[in-house]
Amino acid sequence: MKYIFGTVLVLLLCAAAGSGLTLLIFMKKRTGRIRKILVSILLSLILFLTAGYLYLRQYYPAEPAAESFLQCTDTVTVRKTSFGYYFDGASDKTAVIFYPGGKVDEKAYAPMMYHLAEQGADCFLVRMPFRMPIFGIGRAEQIMDLYEYPDWYLMGHSLGGTAAAEYIRKHTDKIRGLIMLASYPNHPVPDHIQFLSVYGDRDGCLNKEAYEKAKADWPSSGKESVIKGGNHAGFGYYGNQKGDGMLLISKQEQQDAVIQEMLKLMQDQ
Questions:
Q1: Pairing state of beta strands 177-181 and 77-80?
Q2: Which portions of the chain are predicted below pLDDT 70?
Q3: Quick count: other Cβ atoms within 10 Å of Cβ 158?
Q4: Extents of the domains making up the chain
Q5: 220 in Cβ contact with 45 (< 8 Å)
Q6: Which of 98, 120, 92, 95 is nearest to 110 (CA)?
Q7: What pLDDT, on a 0 to 100 scale, did the predictor assign at position 174?
Q8: How many helices and strands in the chain, by DSSP H and E?
Q9: What is the pLDDT of residue 184?
Q10: Which CATH architecture fits 64-267?
Q11: Neighbours of 39 (CB within 10 A)
């Protein structure tokens, strides 16, 4: 919701700025009304696209420690692909497709994907257009067309979780489960979907009021796990996030807690 509000606000500001520039340009010239309107629209559009480009260029980069988990080991083979990264562990049955948070480098989630692949589920870490998952909601479809697993799970952090839930809304027959990290769905999740919601009790970015309201959209068997001492950015390795609470445990502890809850969920299938 905050992204929609921000986009509308920027659009209005650009429209106002475009109108102001048009008045300055034609202040001492006699020009028809239609031409002024067209120039104003063109200037507003240029300003909006420029603002959008500058906004999307800013993101949370992955910490160097995260990139060390993109190397192959004896237990997990890591491949760079056209969609991001593939963490191939011992499983040949279960796979998780992960949608990163908005404006976060996907590599920041490599440690969690690596450890999950090591402990029981192969993982697909998705690279999103402009690092915004709302532009890549359908990426899961591309992955499932290329690989064959009996059980597919979709997982997402923050805006990535909302995007994952949006994908499931139109593809309920392809996904077994949905795991949302510091996130919530905008539409009802079907009852046959295994559902897990996880967030940290120190999270300063999650809209708790919206989160609580969204519980009405959870499937009847939905589960919730609150990580004591965890925060919003602790699900990835990308530093501190603006507005977030202080992390009282290590990032690894927070992510290990997620993995354990996920493995329990998958064992319940």
A1: unpaired
A2: 1-33, 35-40, 42-57, 269
A3: 28
A4: 2-56, 64-267
A5: no
A6: 98
A7: 87
A8: 8, 8
A9: 97
A10: 3-Layer(aba) Sandwich (3.40)
A11: 17
